Amino acid sequence: MRRLTVLISMLVVCQGLATPLSLSGTLGPDGAEEDGNPEVLSSLTLLHEDASADCQVGDGASYRGTVSVTASGKTCQRWDSQEPHEHSRTLANYPSAGLEQNYCRNPDSWTEVWCYTTDPDTRWERCDVRDCADWLARDQAWAVGSSGAAYSFGGLTFDAGKVLDGDTSTYWNPYGLERYYNNWYIVLDLRVPYSLFRVGIANYGDDIHDIKAFTLQRSESGDPYSWENVTSADDIVAGTDEWQERGGFAATARHWRLLISQTHKGWQPWLLELGLYGFRVLADAPPGYAVFRNNCIRHRNQLGTERDSSVQRCAVSCDLLLACRSFDFNFHHLTCSLSTDTRDSAAQAYENCPARFQQQTDYYEKQDHPQTKDVPAPTYYNPLDHESTFSTPNGHTLDEGVGVSALQLESRRSQYANLGNFAGTCFGSTLNCPRGFTLAFWFKRPAGDNHPQYYINSGGHDFTRTRGFTLTKTVADLDNDLYNVAVNGRLCRHEAKVYLLADQWTHVAITWLEERGLEIFVDGRVQLVAVLGSEIPPLENDPYTDVFLGSANTQPGEHTGEAVFDELKFWDWVLSDGQIQLAMIPGSDLRPQSMRFATVCRLEVRNVPDP
């Protein structure tokens, strides 16, 4: 198997900048005119306070680290001192150059950072600060276009993505073009802008298909592209698969093209690997957010995932949700996951962000804090993470939850949980709910739950015998993801069909007031709702006031529901939308869009648009 002689899949973790770099060299600090423009800076723009804190990009004009010794070990002279060397590189003359204390800087567009020294015999020296740029961690999905048809053989397709897979036993073979075509190309979409300084390739090494000349191009826009040349090489060696690099350029773009203008024998190129050396261009964090580069929480408490998005759009979505505290942004796939978690509430997840996610993810966290003091304490709260808070006659399992742990019930074992008897309370019977109620809980159900079952119940199996609420899977909905929510009041029964996805945590919040009907929050997404307000016979006393999970309280152990439950909360009045959202912190998947149905004993069917 062919092997490259250099590592080309290293992660670029340094902070980047937003403008093309200029690497044009000048004379040393004392070789230039000292009375020149005091604001001469490179084209680098610092975009985040920790950018270039421990490395320099380009000529180092943006470097704001704390290295204060030269490459030979001499201590740097303070910039505000004129001893032992007088100079004009002062904060007054270069106010944007970061001339603090005696830290190495490049205020005047020299080739790298430097400082005056405290040695009277050595006026200045360069500083040894590492380069932020590195060989980019690559993604086969970057290859979005290429010339010719991908050659296939033995079940393997030799497409353009093979040059980015790190596997030197595979290669790109653009098949079907004539000899001396001399216009072979690969189009790359890096998903976000990168500043590049070097490019490397590995030929196949057979003399016949080896590249001799290529041009690296960039485009300011996506398809349709507007290509401009960045750098060219016409001296690539044939007969070897050794790594060959070319540099001496600096450019920034998201869209790039490798244009191969010549192979050594005129046949289509066989290219093993392509590498790009540079760093990711970073933008400011959105207002009100702090950004933590190359890190993640891999949110457990997702409020949803957005695809084909941007940091700015993700921040807008998070701002619309009072419960949203943060989001991970995957800059390779342009997706973000919104969450109620923070680095404090999910400290272990933050500290253990897997390396493969660090390579392509930034973590953003809101800097303001919600006013949870405005949310009244629930009348009843059960974290469902300890056996002392429920009884399970047929056993149960404690699984990982959105909080500490969660209650898992298995239908095949006829498992259900009794939360207790709540006679005389609104939680136990809606006969005691003159102000209505708010019920909220976390819920995760498996795919394929294709039999009638109860999930949460205080309203029994026969609504004429008891009063309360229930969430069920009915016979009519065994082949879909609709679930039935029903509340039996004094005079009316209200029902709604809600859509719940399988195999993921979903937050369900229900408010009810007999004169108004149901108000349902289900991750902010309800596709179809049918509300039925029907008159029911009066009931003076409610004999069934236990609250069950996984079964009806009038028929314990029958039609048991398989699901995981967590963070159950109940208020004996109707919360406002904002209070419901804030009450879900830190355990929430809530989206702030409610479905209101002010029905009193009448039938309505409403289509609710997908938000």
From TrEMBL:
This is Kringle domain-containing protein. It comes from the Eukaryota. Residues 1-18 form the signal peptide. Residues 132-279 form the F5/8 type C domain. Keywords: Disulfide bond, Kringle, Signal. Coiled coil: none annotated. Disulfide bonds join 55-132, 76-115, 104-127. Residues 54-132 form the Kringle domain. PANTHER family: KRINGLE DOMAIN-CONTAINING PROTEIN (PTHR24261:SF7), PLASMINOGEN-RELATED (PTHR24261).
